[in-house]
Design a protein that fits this description.
Order of helices and strands: EEHHEHEHEHEHEHEEHHEEHEHHEH
Structural class: alpha/beta
CATH architecture of the largest domain: 3-Layer(aba) Sandwich
CATH class of the largest domain: Alpha Beta
Number of strands: 13
C-alpha cells in the first residue's frame, strides 16, 4: 500500500512496474560515486569497469551462465529488439542467409516482441504465429509442427505478462534440438523472461534457451537497464552472435554500443540477487493472496470470468502474482479508471500498449471464438512484495463498488 496526498493507494500493478527495493537503492548510491568511464585506461575508469564486471558476474551466477554471455541494455524492450532484429540484421549481411528464412513467434507475446516479427515480415522474412490453447499455454507440439529447416528463430515468453501462464520452455527447447539434429539446422530459441525470475529458478541452460531477455524494472531494480543472455552457441562463423542495433564504441562484445550504466547495473544485480533468496517463500505467499482475491471476486462480482492462471479447469503452471479477469459488457478502461478513483491501481494489459487498442490480443488468441466482450473487458491484478491481505480486501471492495455503480446507470 502506498500514499499520494490524502488518498490511500493500493498498488496492484506490479507486472507493470515494481518499486525499487532497498538493496538495489543502496547499490545504486554506492556505484554512483564511480564517475569514470568503464572504457578508460586510468584508475577511475578501472574502478568503474570493475563494478560493471562484478554486476555482470552476479547476474550471470543467478542465470547459471558465463559473464561474457550477458549484454547490458536499456531494458526489456531493447533486449527483445536486440535478440530478434539483431539476429535478422546479422543474417541480412552478405552471406548471412536472411533471404528465405522462417521465423516463429507465440501469438501472445509482449508488444516489443511481436513488433519485431512484424518488421521482419515487412522486410521479407516468413513469419508464423503459434497459437495458445484456452489456458494460454503454447504446446511443444504446436511449435514443432511449424519448424522448417530454414527456420531461424522461435520466440516464446517464459511467464506471460497479461495472464501469468508459464510456458514449457524446456520441452519446446528439446523439440527444437531434436529437429536441429535431424535436419542439420541451427534454429535458436529466445524467451522474454518477464517477471518469472522473481518466482522461478532462472537457469538459462536448464531452460534450454539460446537468448533470454530481462528487465530490471520488473524485478524491483532500477528502470533504464536490462540484460540479454546470448549463448555462446549463437556465435556465427564471423564470430558475431548478433549484429548491433546501436553503433559506436563496440562495447558489450560489439553487440551494444554505448558507455555501460555502472550504477544502474549495480542496482539490477543487487535486486536479482536479493530476489533469489526469497523466491520460494514469496511465491507461496503471493499465490495464497491471489487465490483469495480470485475467490472473492468470483463471489462478489457476478459474471466475472478468469483468463489463464486460476481459471476453472486450468492445469497449466502459472506465475503466483497475476490474476486476469473479464467482466461482461464493462470496458477495461472504465474499470481501471473507476478503481483508480477509488485508490486502487490495476492495468488492462502491458503498459507498452495502453491506449493503442481496446482489446487484449492475448485473451483474443486464447479464446478466438468467444464473444468480443471477453477480450475487451480484461483487467489485470498483479501482486507484489508489499501486497497484504488488507490490500486484497480493499481491492475487492473497490471493484464491487465500481461494477455496481456502472450497472446502476
Amino acid at each position: 500500500m502506498f500514499g499520494f496526498g490524502k488518498l490511500r493507494r493500493t498498488y496492484m500493478d506490479y507486472a507493470g512496474g515494481t518499486p525499487l527495493r532497498p538493496e538495489a537503492r543502496k547499490a545504486i548510491e554506492d556505484a554512483a560515486l564511480l564517475y569514470g568511464n568503464p572504457g578508460a585506461l586510468h584508475e577511475e575508469g578501472r574502478h568503474a569497469a570493475r563494478s560493471i564486471g562484478d554486476s555482470r558476474s552476479a547476474i550471470a551466477r543467478e542465470l547459471g551462465v558465463k559473464a561474457h554471455e550477458l549484454v547490458f541494455v536499456s531494458g526489456g524492450t531493447e533486449a527483445n529488439n536486440l535478440a530478434i532484429l539483431g539476429l535478422w540484421k546479422r543474417m541480412a549481411q552478405p552471406g548471412g542467409g536472411a533471404k528465405g528464412t522462417h521465423w516463429i513467434v507465440s501469438a501472445i507475446e509482449h508488444p516489443s516482441v511481436l513488433a519485431c516479427f512484424d518488421h521482419i515480415g515487412e522486410m521479407g522474412g516468413a513469419v508464423e504465429r503459434v497459437m495458445p490453447d484456452s489456458d494460454g499455454s503454447i504446446s511443444p507440439e504446436s511449435v514443432e509442427a511449424l519448424l522448417r529447416p530454414e527456420t531461424a528463430l522461435v520466440s516464446v515468453g517464459w511467464g506471460n505478462h497479461e495472464v501469468g501462464v508459464v510456458q514449457p520452455l524446456r520441452a519446446i527447447a528439446q523439440r527444437i534440438a531434436r529437429f536441429n539434429d535431424r535436419h542439420g539446422s541451427s534454429i535458436a530459441l529466445h524467451a522474454d523472461a518477464g517477471q518469472a525470475p522473481l518466482y522461478l529458478s532462472a537457469k538459462a541452460h536448464t531452460l534450454g534457451v539460446d537468448m533470454l531477455s530481462l528487465d530490471s524494472s520488473k524485478l524491483y531494480g532500477p528502470r533504464g537497464v536490462g540484460a540479454l543472455f546470448v549463448s555462446d552457441t549463437m556465435r556465427s562463423e564471423s564470430g558475431s552472435a548478433l549484429a548491433p542495433l546501436l553503433l559506436g564504441g563496440g562495447q558489450e562484445r560489439g553487440m551494444r554500443a554505448g558507455s555501460e550504466p555502472v550504477a544502474l547495473a549495480a542496482g539490477f544485480a543487487a535486486a536479482l540477487t536479493a530476489a533469489s533468496g526469497e523466491r520460494g517463500m514469496e511465491a507461496k505467499r503471493l499465490e495464497e493472496l491471489r487465490v483469495s482475491l480470485m475467490r472473492t471476486i468470483m463471489e462478489e462480482v457476478p459474471g466475472a470470468v478468469v483468463n489463464g492462471a486460476g481459471a476453472k479447469g486450468a492445469r497449466t503452471p502459472s506465475l503466483p502474482h497475476i490474476l486476469n479477469i473479464s467482466i461482461p459488457d464493462i470496458s477495461s478502461e472504465y474499470v481501471v479508471l473507476a478503481l483508480d478513483r477509488r485508490g486502487v491501481s490495476v492495468s488492462t494489459k502491458s503498459a507498452c500498449r495502453e491506449g493503442e487498442e481496446s482489446r487484449s490480443h492475448v485473451v483474443e488468441a486464447m479464446f478466438p471464438h468467444a464473444e468480443t466482450w471477453r477480450a475487451a473487458s480484461t483487467v489485470r491484478f498483479s501482486l507484489g512484495r508489499d501486497t497484504s491481505p488488507a490490500d486484497v480486501r480493499r481491492t475487492t471492495a473497490a471493484l464491487r463498488d465500481a461494477v455496481e455503480a456502472y450497472r446502476a446507470l
